[in-house]
Amino acid sequence: MTDISSLCVFCGSKVGTSPAYEAAARRLGDMMVERGIRLVYGGGRIGLMGIVADTVFAGGGEVIGVIPEFLENLEVGNTDVTELIVTDSMHSRKHKMFELSDGFVSLPGGLGTLDETFEILTWKQLQVHAKPVVVMNVDGYWASFAQLIEDTINGGFAHPKVRDLLSIVDGPEQVFAALASAPAPDREVLTSHL
Fold first, then answer.
1. pLDDT at 135 (0 to 100)
2. What pLDDT, on a 0 to 100 scale, did the predictor assign at position 76?
3. How far is CA 3 from CA 66, 98, 131, 132, in A?
4. In order of start, what are the domains of the chain with their CATH numbers?
């Protein structure tokens, strides 16, 4: 596992119903600053994404926001960042975030966060990358997601080693150990059904 100097965080453009979500976002931001890890995120100034970005930036850390032009035009882009990259589409946004990051952490979020998390896992399954992916199951938010992955295995649509494509942790205190110990993806998750 390579050292993490740049971490992509996927999370909601809302704060959600549990105060634990916001607390986890702030704590993750603080821990990134303590470790000198650059934040790459979706470029917004609202919700959990704004909280993580504001925490890292206020702590003196580097923050790279990546936002598609149509969202920037809706004035949700965060200008209080080190750099705000404006892309032409959601697809190019995700690709740019991928290019700039050594690993990925998903906090609670909506459909966009689910999309980003599934896509980065799919790319890992397809051997496009071997970067660690950590899902922060704050207040059990990602329990259904974990069960869905199990259902794909039990239903015969995925190899059991897809479990190793991600680490599921309860909170920010476990994120960096999970990033450091993430195994490389086994080629069998790709080839077992070809």
1. 98
2. 79
3. 22, 16, 10, 11
4. 6-182 (3.40.50.450)
Enumerate residues 6+ apart whose C-beta is below 8 A from 62: 38, 39, 56, 82
Q: Which of 127, 125, 129 is nearest to 100 (CA)?
A: 129
Helix H, strand E, coil C: the string for the chain is CCCCCEEEEECCCCCCCCHHHHHHHHHHHHHHHHHCCEEEECCECCHHHHHHHHHHHHCCCCEEEEEEHHHHHCCCECCCCCEEEEECCHHHHHHHHHHCCCEEEECCCCHHHHHHHHHHHHHHHCCCCCCCEEEECHHHCCHHHHHHHHHHHHCCCCCHHHHHHCEEECCHHHHHHHHHHCCCCCCHHHHCCC
Sheet strands side by side (includes 6-10): 83-87, 63-68, 38-41, 6-10, 103-106, 133-136, 167-169
The pLDDT assigned to 5 comes to 96
| Residue 46 near residue 143 (C-beta atoms within 8 A) | no
Residue-level pLDDT at 190? 77
Cα 139 from Cα 185, distance rounded (Å): 28
Given a contact cutoff of 8 angstroms between Cβ atoms, the answer to whether 97 and 66 are in contact is: yes
Q: Give mean pLDDT in consecutive 10-residue pieces for the chain, a chain of 194 residues.
A: 87 97 98 98 94 97 95 80 95 97 98 97 94 98 97 95 96 96 86 74
Question: Which position has the token pair 């994404």?
Answer: 49
